[in-house]
Specification:
The protein is of the alpha/beta class. It is about 35% helix and about 25% strand. The radius of gyration is 18 Å and the shape is globular. The structure holds benzoic acid (BEZ).
Length: about 260
């Protein structure tokens, strides 16, 4: 899940990611179902992170390659799944000799500002008629968290910009069409997501994923900002001791029309 780009670097602690944020790949199972990989099909898993979904796709008999821009993630994936092929590369600029039947991506694309470069690479990687099945954060994703961080930082004199790309269906479908895809399915839906870690779940989420969101706030002031964010969100988002993040997903299935 980490095709980290120059626009939004995040330092990945792979063991914390797997232990405390496993919902990312657990929810990804539904996206694998939408992909419906077939035995011997060539599939690329774009932004594969620690490789759990890549291995899941491999278990169907597909010939899968996992790609991620984080070397830490790729090293971990290779160690966990030595029989699966993983490649360290940038989702904005990659090339393979053999075309793929499908490109898959879960919870990765929203980290990349330059989506045109990504979609150009995806289109180039697919055979004619090949499919692109992806889920990313959609418009309004984690908006309550972003707003609370923005307000808490502003009170201390810092301007926070969201580092993420959370498109609407219209925006993403048009972009796909410009890159030669026909959009067969596009869904935007709320998926309130329980964060692991009980009362510390929100702080732990911000620790794992919020580096670039909090980049304007000096390290020394971050704990106070995070505590302030928790105060602002507690009433609505802490339910029976578990933090619920306001995730919204954009799920798409598109087919390459290039010949
Ligand atoms: C997401 O999967 O929607 C997401 C994860 C971390 C930061 C922002 C969004």
């Amino acid at each position: 899940m980490s095709p980290r780009s120059d626009d939004g670097p995040n330092d990945w602690d792979t063991s914390t990611y797997d232990e405390d944020h496993s919902f990312v790949f657990e929810y990804g199972e539904a996206v694998v179902d939408l992909l419906a990989p077939q035995p011997d099909e060539r599939v690329l898993d774009l932004g594969c992170g620690t490789g759990h979904l890549t291995a899941r796709i491999a278990s169907t008999g597909a010939d899968v390659v996992g790609l991620d821009a984080s070397l830490e993630m790729i090293d971990e994936a290779r160690e966990t799944y030595p029989d699966v092929r993983f490649v360290h590369a940038d989702a904005r600029d990659f090339d393979f000799e053999e075309p793929f039947d499908a490109v898959f991506s879960n919870a990765a694309l929203h980290w990349i500002a330059d989506q045109d470069a990504v979609l150009e690479s995806v289109a180039r990687a697919l055979r004619p008629g090949g499919r692109f099945v992806a889920e990313l954060g959609g418009a309004g994703n984690v908006q309550a968290i972003v707003d609370a961080v923005r307000e808490a930082a502003k009170d201390r004199g810092y301007e926070v910009e969201s580092p993420w790309y959370f498109p609407t269906i219209g925006e993403y479908a048009s972009r796909l069409e410009r890159h030669g895809f026909e959009v067969r399915e596009a869904t935007l839906f709320d998926r309130p997501t329980e964060l692991d870690g009980g009362a510390d779940g929100l702080a732990s989420w911000l620790e794992m994923f919020g580096d670039s969101l909090l980049s304007a706030v000096p390290d020394a002031e971050r704990p106070a900002v995070v505590a302030d964010v928790a105060d602002r969100l507690r009433e609505e988002h802490l339910v029976a001791g578990t933090w619920i993040a306001d995730y919204r997903r954009l799920r798409i299935r598109a087919v390459s029309t290039q010949s």
